[in-house]
Amino acid sequence: MSLFFATYLMLHYIDYRQTTAIHDSPTHYEVNPFIGRNANRASVNRWFVGTTAAAYYIDQHMRHGETRKVLQCMFIGFSATAVARNYSIGIRINF
Fold it and tell me: According to a count of CB atoms within 10 Å of the terminal CB, is the N or C end of the chain lower?
């Protein structure tokens, strides 16, 4: 497992926990267009399993090179942006 993938997994897990908190909140709504504003828990789970599988495939099966690094950085960037946005609107998680 690469450092890029480990970083992504950490951020993605935090984003997942925040997204499920949004799902359970009557005052917040999801802005990810792939999940949907009022998605059910199954849709949320499918999104996170699918994106984790895609990131794993990139980490394990793409040749080492610039394309792989760019894709990994994009995945990290998307997750970091989501975590920061969720945090800014008051979505907190406990470990």
Answer: C
1/84 Cα distance (integer angstroms): 25
Q: Which pTM value belongs to this model?
A: 0.88
CA distance 79 to 4: 12
Q: Distance (Å, rounded) from C-alpha 7 to C-alpha 21?
A: 21
User: For 58-85, what is each residue's pLDDT tens digit?
Assistant: 888 887 788 888 999 999 999 999 999 9
The structural domains of the chain, with segments of one domain joined by +, span 3-88
For residue 25, what are its two tokens? 């909140």
Length of the chain: 95
Residue 94 carries which side chain, given as an amino acid letter?
N
